[in-house]
Amino acid sequence: MTSTVLVAGSANLDFVVRAAHVPAPGETVLGREFRTFPGGKGANQAVACARAGGAATQMLLALGADDFAKPIEASLNDAGVTLHTVRDALLPTGTAFICLSDDAENAITVAPGANMALQPTHLPPLDGVQWLLLQLESPLATVQAYAASARAAGVKVALNAAPAQVLPAELLALLDMLIVNEGELAVVAGNPPDLASGLARLDVPCVIVTLGARGCLARIDGQILLQPAFSISPLDTTAAGDTFCGTLIARMAQHTPLQQALLAASAASALACTRLGAQSSIPDHAEVEALLADASRLPGTDAHAALAAWCAL
Question: If you compute the radius of gyration of the chain from its CA atoms, what whole number of angstroms results?
């Protein structure tokens, strides 16, 4: 491996209950199966990056001094991620409470815990790192400090702006790539009337918008790229976006052209939706390559046309 990605961000233990549907406000729903899974946007993305192959993956994370940390560390180690762990004696390991419906939708509430203990001084040396991948489940000031340090060191910076929040112009100016879904685009770009306007408002060299079952689009150096999604029967969409981000950055660290990287990330994300859990659902390199090699599964001309029409770019 000649390329290295550093993921800095969150790690949670997910408490997942399956139910017929996600409860509405004030509604109690009787659930069924209950399980715990290692999760957290940062940790999920690190596992996806490591399993994508071709790039050595490191992660900076903060955990509590409790038993919830153990399965998270085990999952990251099993995936081959090199850990830079901050251990907080006062805050608990982050947790997420997830209701997963029978139609594969979910509702998630996160208690960040130790994730909020990450400080600018915790960033490890960036020697040999090609990409720094960030999210927003850590303090915003820390995220911006990490991005500034990476920019100063000549390291490319990607931010998955999730959970959505308004971002300062100073942070956007430090990014090489911004990855958002439609809801996050609305918040970051100030409620644009359409996708084209949202992309135009963001002064970042590369912006990628994921569109769920439709696929994704990207703007890079003024050029628009479209990538339809793979057709699947979803079981659990948890970590689908994280799988996309980690796979994408692993490919970018190997200097893969963006269009090909979007295709691989879409394939990995599709496979993740067919399995339960967060990190437990993320495919490895061989599984993604097998899907990409199956010409009958690749999105066709009709899918491209439908995505282009829906985006109305």
Answer: 18
pLDDT of residue 1 exceeding 60, the answer is no
- Encode pLDDT of 138-166 as tens digits: 999 999 999 999 999 999 999 999 999 99
Among 181, 176, 178, which Cα is nearest to 195's?
Answer: 181
Can you give the pTM of this predicted structure?
0.95
21 part of a folded domain: no
Q: Residue 103: inside a domain, yes or no? A: no
Whether residue 242 lies in the annotated active site: yes
State the total domains in the chain.
1
Q: Look up the domain containing 51 and give its range.
A: 3-10+40-92+118-311
CATH of the domain at 164: 3.40.1190.20
181 labeled binding residue: yes
**Does residue 122 lie within any of the structural domains?**
yes
Average pLDDT, the chain: 95
Residue 102 domain-assigned?
A: no
Say which of 67, 194, 242, 284 is annotated catalytic: 242
- Is 160 marked as a binding-site residue? no
Q: How far is CA 254 from CA 2, 181, 208, 292, in A?
A: 8, 24, 18, 18
Q: Determine whether the annotation assigns residue 115 to a binding site.
A: no
Q: What is the DSSP letter of 229?
A: P
- The annotation status of 169 as a binding-site residue, yes or no, is no
pLDDT digits 0-9 by tens, 16-66: 999 999 999 999 999 999 999 999 999 999 999 999 999 999 999 999 999
